[in-house]
């Protein structure tokens, strides 16, 4: 989806599945057309808020058919930037919460908003860069040590920040101890 001048998101692209669910091509249509007439404002505000605040959201909704059948859906809205400083697009996914074998045979008339939530509860943790590994240090020793024990020892040394070279002599590329020439 993309934002418009009046903060009314519209479908920039729409996949075959969502078009089949709705029984029509929805590319170019406003996001509001998916929703029940009395609820059109809330989902539009949620989608606009995802773009404005650059925070993903999950929407729980129920889809209704003309026959009276209904199915629960989960919709994920994730913000996308079209340039480095402007977030004016969304990547969305609509998935049935439970299997509904009839879903491919009947089209949805509208979605009804059940609830929504923003996904910013956990702070983002930037991973620290890992130190460069010496690939020869990953070779297992030739003694009768089991691989699991050797891996635990290597991981514990890495967690403690100790140099792996302190525990074993360096190895050449095929895992043999270096030859000492007299």
From TrEMBL:
Q: Where is this region: Disordered?
A: 161-182
- Going by the entry's taxonomy, the superkingdom of the source organism is recorded as Bacteria
InterPro entries in the cross-refs: DUF1457 (IPR009922)
Please give the Pfam families that the UniProt record associates with this protein.
PAS_5 (PF07310)
- Recorded protein name is PAS domain-containing protein
Record the organism: Rhizobium freirei PRF 81
């Amino acid at each position: 989806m993309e934002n418009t001048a009046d903060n009314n998101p519209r479908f920039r692209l729409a996949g075959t599945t969502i078009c089949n669910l709705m029984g029509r091509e929805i590319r170019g249509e406003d996001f509001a057309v998916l929703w029940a007439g009395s609820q059109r404002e809330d989902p539009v505000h949620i989608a606009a808020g995802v773009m404005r605040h650059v925070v993903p959201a999950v929407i729980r909704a129920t889809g209704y058919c003309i026959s009276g059948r209904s199915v629960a859906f989960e919709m994920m809205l994730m913000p996308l930037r079209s340039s480095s400083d402007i977030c004016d697009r969304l990547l969305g996914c609509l998935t049935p919460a439970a299997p509904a074998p009839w879903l491919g045979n009947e089209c949805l008339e509208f979605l009804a908003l059940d609830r929504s939530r923003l996904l910013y509860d956990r702070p983002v943790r930037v991973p620290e860069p890992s130190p460069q590994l010496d690939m020869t240090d990953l070779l297992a020793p030739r003694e009768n040590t089991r691989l699991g024990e050797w891996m635990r020892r290597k991981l514990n040394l890495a967690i403690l920040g100790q140099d792996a070279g302190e525990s074993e002599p360096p190895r050449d590329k095929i895992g043999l101890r270096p030859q000492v020439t007299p």
